[in-house]
Amino acid sequence: QVQLVESGGGLVQAGGSLRLSCAASGRPLSSYVMGWFRQAPGKEREFVVAINRSGGSTYYADSVKGRFTISRDSAKNTMYLQMNSLKPEDTAIYYCAAHNRIGYNYSTRVSQYDYWGQGTQVTVSS
User: Fold this and answer.
1) Is residue 68 within 8 Å of 18, Cβ to Cβ?
2) How far is the C-alpha of 31 from the C-alpha of 46, rounded, in Å?
3) If 0-12 CB within 10 Å is exposed, 13-18 middle and 19+ buried, where does residue 87 land?
4) Over 77-114, what HEC string results?
5) Which pLDDT value is given to residue 105?
């Protein structure tokens, strides 16, 4: 089992940047497919981006392509989400997620992930 803790959220003005971190413990993060999801009030949890086990492939939702960048650092056992050019519609609780299921190079569905962080609030003001 792996435990995940997000950090780095906050309030930022539109056009600004934030860097979210997802620190893992209990297991090496390199064993897991990783992803970021977000959930705004009254909406279902939404896929943002995923990264495969090796870190060589990434998969972004259309809404964040060109603005967000996912990365993982095995030495620090941490995953990051660099968010640039933030928009008010990016406001949500952001969750990191992980799974080590066989047969997936990446995953975009909530149901495909087994481990979740507690979430970190990102608020983008206009």
Assistant:
1) no
2) 23
3) middle
4) CEEEEEECCCCHHHCEEEEEEEECCCCCCCCCCHHHCC
5) 82
Query: Mind listing the pLDDT tens digit of every residue in the chain (126 residues)?
Result: 899 999 999 999 999 999 999 999 999 999 999 999 999 999 999 999 999 998 899 999 999 999 999 999 999 999 999 999 999 999 999 999 999 999 888 899 999 999 999 999 999 999
Residue 15 corresponds to which tokens in the numbers above?
A: 């056009």
> How would you classify the pairing of strands 10-13 and 120-125?
parallel
Spatial CA neighbour of 67 closest among 80, 53, 84? 84
**How far is Cα of residue 124 from the mean position of the Cα atoms in its chain?**
17
> How far is 66 from 2, CA to CA, in rounded Å?
30
Nearest to 117 by CA among 12, 19, 20: 20
| Sign (positive or negative) of CA dihedral 15, 21, 22, 28 | positive
Residue whose C-alpha is closest to residue 124's, from 84, 68, 95: 84
Structure tokens at 59: 């998969």
pLDDT (0 to 100) of residue 106: 87
